[in-house]
Each structure stands twice: as C-alpha cells, then as structure tokens.
Design goal:
By secondary structure, the chain is of the alpha/beta class. The protein is built from 19 helices and 26 strands. The longest helix has 28 residues, at 2-29. The termini are far apart. Bound molecules: beta-D-glucopyranose. Beta-D-glucopyranose (BGC) binds at residues 126, 174, 221, 299-300, 424. Beta-D-glucopyranose is lined by residues 126, 174, 221, 299-300, 424.
Length: 741
C-alpha cells in the first residue's frame, strides 16, 4: 500500500513537472512573450500614439504618410519588426486543433498590435465564400459568382461581406482570390472566379471595392501562379516572362491599380523562388513597376522560409505568427544583412494602411444583427439564381409547375448541405437549404420523392413513377478543396480533384434513371468543369450549380420550375475530355506553365470544346444584329467602341451577357486567336431590343515584349467580336486598325 502511494505521488509529481515544462515551452516559443530583455515591446516615451491621429475624416495621402512616419520615429527596431508578423502563437494553433476542434478563424486573426503606441492589430477574416468568422452568410462559392458575369452583383456581395466583417470585429478580408483556373482539377478552383484574366480582374475589383468601402482592407491572393493544390507548398512553377505578364498577372495588376489594400503571396515557388521570397514578383513587379502602395503578407504558416530573403524581396508581413521574421530578422538588421531601410519601408506600408482604414469615417453602423440579416440571405439566393448555368436543355425545362404531379430527386448529394470545401474558406451558416428541401418548399412535400441512389433498383422505380427526375451529381469537400496535410485522409480533406468525369456511381445512376424516364435533369455540383460525354445525350437538361451556398436549394427550385430564368455563363471551358486541356501534374516538384489553357488553347488548336467559355442557356432566346465600331482606325492611346443590337426573341423576360473579344489576325508575334476584353449583363423584356456598347482601350491590345521589357501595341489590323459566347459561331466580327495618325 505504501509503495503504491509512493508510486502515485511520484507519478503526480512527474505529471506536474511535465505540465510545467509544457507551459514553459509554450511561453518560451511565443515569439512576442512580454519579458524585459528578450524580444518584446520596448519601454519608451511613446510621445505620439496611434490614437493621436484625427479620426472621422478621410486623410489625404500625405497626411497618412506623415502620421505613419511619426509613429515609425517612436519605434525601436524590435517594435518595427513586431509590426511585421502575426500575433498568433503556438498556443493558438494547439487551441485550434484541440479546444476549437478545427473551427477556424472564429474571431479575427490579428497582426501587429502595439500597446505602447496604441497601434491596433489587423483583424483578418478569411473568405471568399463570404465571411469565415462565426456563422456568417454562406454565399455560392467564388466560381459561381464568376459565372454570374455580373459586376453589380459582385458589388452587392462585397457590400454584405464588408458589413458582416465589421460587425464581427474584423478589418481585413482574405477573400479576393484571383488565381487563374488553368485546369479544372485544381482543388481550390472553387475559390477563384474563372479561367480568364480579364473576367477575374473585373469581377474581383467590383467586390473588393465594395468591401473596402466599409473600411475593411481587401487582400488579393495568392500572388502568384497558385493552381495546383497537393504540392502547393513545394512545387516550382516555371513560366516564361511573357506568359507571366500576359496570362497570370493582369488580374493582380488590375487589383493593384484599384488600390486593393494588401496582397498575399502564394505558397508555391515561381521560377525557383518561393513566392513570398521572390524579389521579381514582390519588389520588381508589384512594388516598383506597378507602383503598388499597399503591403504584402505571406500565406499562412508555410509561406516564408528564409526571413532575410523574404524581407529583402519585399514581404512586409509574416502570417499568422513569427517564424522567419521576429528575432532572426532583428539580428539580420543588426548584423547589417538587411538594411534598416527595408524594415522601415515594410512598416510604413503597414502603418499607412492601418491609419487610412482606421481613421476614415464609416458609411454605416455595424451592429451584430447585421450578420445574416434577411437581405443578406436574400442576396445569397439571388447570387445562386444568377450563377447557375443551364448547359443543355432539350425543351424539358422549365417544368410545368401546375401539371407536375411528382418529381423524383435522386443522388447522395440531393439532401445534404454541400457548401464547398472544408479548408480555410469554409463558412459556417447555421442553416442550409438542400435541393430536396428547396423543391419540397416550392411544390409541397407530397410531390417530391427523394432517393439517395445507392440502391439502383429503388432509384429506377422512383424515376419510372415520377413525372420528372432530378439527379444531383458531383462532388463535395472530400473530393476537391484545400488540402490540409495534417489530415491526409482524402476522404475528409479535399485536394485536387481526381477525375474530370463524375464518379462511376453517379454516372451509373444517371444512365439508370434516364433509361426509365427521359425527362431527367442532371444538376452538377462541382467547382469547375465536369465532362459529360458518357451521358449527356441520354438526359433532357443539364444544370451546373457549383456549390450554390446556403440558399442554393431555393434558387435551384426557382430555376427548375421556371420562376427564375437561368442566366449564368461559363467562366471556363468545359472540354470533351482531358486531351483538350493543358497537362495537370500534381506530383512533380517542378511544372511548366505555357501561354495557353482553356478557350485560348482550344481556339489555338482548333478544338471544339463541349461547352465554350461564356456559354449558357436560358428559357428565352436572344439575337445579336447590326454590329458596328465607332471608328475604323484608332491611335494606341485611344478607344474603340463596339455596339450591337441585342433582342430578346423569346416569350419570357431574361438576362444575357454580351461579350466582347479582341482578335489579332495580323500580329507579327504568336498571340491567342481572341481574348475577352469586355462584357455586360443586360436584362430584356420579351421582344425588347437594346443597343449595347462596349469600349476597348487600344492599350489593352498590347503584348509584353520581353526584349524591351515593355507592353507593345502593334500598329496593325485587329478584330473585335461581339456575341453570346467565345464560340466563333456565336460571334459577329468587325475589323479595325491601330495607327499613329
Ligand atoms: C490559405 C489562404 C488563407 C490562409 C488563412 C491558407 O491555408 O492558402 O488562402 O487565406 O490559409 O486562412
């Protein structure tokens, strides 16, 4: 008994020692532990503080800069370097894994708090599906919004995001993801807006500006060439300078020109350097050539390795903690390896943005009740309605609501909330309306039968007995999404999508029910392109719904029943098969990105994809006539305007997207056949005609001349095509010249 007691005592003591040791380690590894003499906030006079800066009016650039410099003058080197990293500690990460059980970014992730100078931290909330914090409104994923081709809708979305972030204490939205969709297998395809640089630029600027109007900083990410998931932290993307400038950077430049507050560097390497350590990307192009005034943060945890190199390259903020910066960076400056001016520049960039955003007057108030306000959920539904793409319709849709006695909804995804991946962009709404729920609400429960589809015989019977069948097929977070290496099980955590086609079970299900009932509609749930060759001719209609957000089921029901006329347009190309795409290699550590992908590749090769970039049907038809240009010759600094009559030739009101493409038939250098250079969504009543005019600045015809390191507009002949998609048959083409006189 005594021995047992002794053993228990010893074990107890050991336990206490271990706990103490763990606590010490946690404290010791906290990069900002507040202990005198170590790496901490310095004592000092603190004569001028952040709170001394006047508020309630927009300060001019010079004033902002002046106050930033005054604060900088108050700071020691260590304080400056503190501004350059996130405030998270190892404890925050442990808490996330244990106590928070993976509920990520519930509260703002902070960076650069300085109590002595009263400098507030940046409060990061992720996106782009909405606001990640708490239980915010879950919108359709970004790719769906790309399919809306609707700048105004993006503005309204951004307005909601800005309000919901402010109501929850955030000041920075990490949701302006504009990595170009090079290949549909990319796991994070859902977070971007499409395959085309022009579309990406236009739509991202619209939402970013609306977010920033609420004094929430935007963050353009992931700069640059981040479009393979499973090797994202290691892969080196090799790209030639011209392709980089013309294909992978224009949308980032558009955001920089529109004064997005910050950039986030990507995890991957570009031409040998990690993006966060790439002097070429950060300093030479973004800061020097583009004259960008905001700050650059790293992607989280694995975005910086060599602190010295990153600081010299122009990375201003390491997120969300201190690993490469902190004491090591202080030491590098003290040893003369990093000039003090580099630190000052980074801190000034951070301070200027903090001052600008904290002092500007707010346009509205942000009470907590703003989050998921009724008009926000209504907007989530409208976004879904305007982004769902009707790919094919043999006249089956819309279903006649009155005559419809029963609908069989089949598929394992039909009655499950399916909002997209479970990575950093996950939004956590308390409710989600599934397809089955949306239809039951619209038609009454009695008319809607749900069959999960695992039992094919049952699904067949249900299909046979119903007036119409809806198959909900596609993917969820286990098939595609952000890949989290700590949870390597592919069953749980996304990664790149394995196949362009649907899973075998989905394909079998479609073929089985369509054989019983040709009045079958397939609804695809996916981030991007899905090949449809095997079954498309057997079904009456195909809709691409993406991950349609918390109101997706209602939006879908509205479209199925014709209460809503579908108007989404593909923001990418749907190929017939993988041979119509560039290679996708997510195992090699070095990959090459060439100049062509999506519609530019298909057009260059003369391939006809299954559904062209810009394609989308509706329940009415539109005709295009009388195209004209306002001039036959334009100077290199001038603008040419293309106009066309668009008529709604059907019996229902509807919306279409008029698209403008520039062509380069006389170019002396290799160029794409045509490139998107304008678009406008127009609403037309039955029989109505509108003349739509789309301007094109001649400078936007330029190619990047690597030898001259400059953009060059050739003085030669060009074409402008207007129409309903990138498909040649859908376009009306006119010619003009760029001349010097
Ligand atoms: C993602 C970023 C995200 C960051 C913070 C990273 O894993 O790549 O897109 O903003 O986490 O949540």
């Amino acid at each position: 008994m005594r021995t047992l007691k002794k053993i228990l005592k010893a074990l107890g003591a050991l336990f206490l020692v271990l706990v103490a040791l763990a606590a010490f380690l946690l404290w010791w590894t906290h990069p900002k532990r507040p202990v005198t003499g170590t790496f901490v906030r310095e004592a000092g006079a603190g004569a001028f503080k952040f709170t001394d800066i006047p508020r309630g009016r927009a300060l001019g650039d010079e004033e902002v800069d002046g106050y930033a410099r005054k604060l900088l003058a108050e700071m020691t080197l260590r304080q400056k370097v503190l501004q350059m990293s996130g405030d998270s500690s190892l404890w925050d990460v442990l808490k996330l894994i244990t106590i928070d059980k993976g509920k990520y970014n519930d509260t703002p992730i902070t960076a650069g708090a300085d109590t002595r100078l009263a400098i507030p931290p940046i409060g990061f909330s992720d996106g782009p599906r909405g606001v990640v914090m708490n239980h915010s409104t879950a919108f359709p994923v970004a790719m769906a919004r790309g399919a809306s081709w609707d700048r105004d809708l993006q503005r309204r979305f951004g307005d909601v995001v800005g309000k919901e972030i402010r109501a929850q204490g955030g000041t920075l939205w990490g949701g302006v993801c504009v990595n170009l969709l090079r290949h549909p297998s990319w796991g994070r395809a859902q977070e971007t807006l499409g395959e085309d640089p022009y579309l990406l630029g236009e739509l991202s600027v619209a939402s970013m500006e609306a977010v920033q109007a609420h004094n929430v900083m935007g963050c353009a990410k992931h700069y640059a060439l981040n479009s393979i998931e499973e090797t994202r932290t290691k892969v080196d993307v090799r790209v030639d300078e011209r392709t980089l400038r013309e294909v992978y950077l224009p949308h980032f430049k558009r955001l920089a020109d529109a004064e997005v507050a910050s950039f986030m560097s990507a995890y991957n390497r570009v031409n040998g350097d990690y993006s966060g350590e790439s002097r070429h990307l950060l300093r030479e192009i973004l800061k020097e050539e583009w004259g960008y005034r905001g700050f650059v943060m790293s992607d989280f945890f694995m975005g910086v390795y060599d602190g010295k190199k990153a600081a010299l390259a122009g990375l201003d903020l390491e997120m969300p903690w201190t690993k490469a910066y902190g004491p090591a960076l202080v030491a590098a400056v003290e040893k003369g390896e990093v000039p003090a001016a580099v630190i000052d520049e980074a801190v000034l960039r951070l301070l200027r943005r903090k001052i600008e955003y904290a002092t500007r007057p707010d346009p509205v108030a942000y009470p907590p009740t703003v989050v998921r306000a009724a008009e926000h959920t209504a907007l989530a539904r409208e976004v879904a309605e305007k982004s769902i793409v009707l790919l094919k319709n043999d006249g089956l849709l819309p279903l006649d609501e009155k005559a419809l006695k029963s609908v069989a909804v089949v598929g394992r995804l039909a009655d499950a909330p399916n909002l997209g991946d479970h990575g950093s962009s996950r939004v956590y709404p308390p409710d989600t309306v599934t397809v089955v729920e949306g239809l039951r609400e619209a038609l009454g429960a009695a008319r809607v039968v749900h069959e999960p589809g695992a039992d094919l015989a049952r699904a067949r019977r249900a299909a046979k007995a119903a007036d119409a069948v809806v198959v909900v097929a596609g993917f969820d977070h286990s098939d595609e999404g952000e890949y989290i290496p700590e949870k390597p099980s592919r069953d749980e955590w996304g990664g790149d999508r394995e196949s362009l086609a649907l899973k075998a079970a989905d394909r079998e299900l479609i073929l089985a029910v369509a054989a019983e009932n040709p009045r079958t509609v397939v609804v695809l749930i996916a981030a991007s392109a899905v090949t449809v060759e095997e079954w498309r001719e057997k079904v009456g209609a195909i809709l691409l719904a993406f991950y349609p957000g918390e109101e997706g089921g209602r939006a879908f029901a509205g479209i199925l029943l014709g209460r809503v006329n579908p108007s989404g347009r593909l923001p990418f190309t749907v190929p017939k098969d993988a041979s119509q795409l560039p290679p996708f290699d997510n195992t090699s550590l070095s990959v090459e990105y060439g100049p062509y992908h999506g519609y530019t590749l298909a057009q260059k090769k003369g391939w006809e994809p299954r559904y062209a970039f810009g394609h989308g049907l509706g329940y009415t038809t539109f005709s295009y006539a009388n195209p004209a240009l306002d001039t036959a010759a334009v100077k290199a600094d001038g603008t040419v305007v293309a106009s066309v009559d668009v008529t709604n030739t059907g019996a229902r009101a509807g919306e279409t997207v008029v698209q403008l493409y520039a062509g380069f038939p006389e170019s002396k250098v290799d160029r794409p056949v045509r490139l998107l250079r304008g678009f406008e969504r127009v609403a037309l009543a039955p029989g109505e005609t509108k003349r739509v005019s789309l301007p094109l600045a001649a400078k936007d015809l330029a190619y990047y001349d690597v030898g001259q390191k400059a953009w060059v507009v050739e003085r030669t002949g060009y074409t402008l095509s207007v129409g309903s998609s990138s498909r040649p048959a859908d376009l009306l083409t006119l010619e003009f010249r760029v001349t010097d006189y």
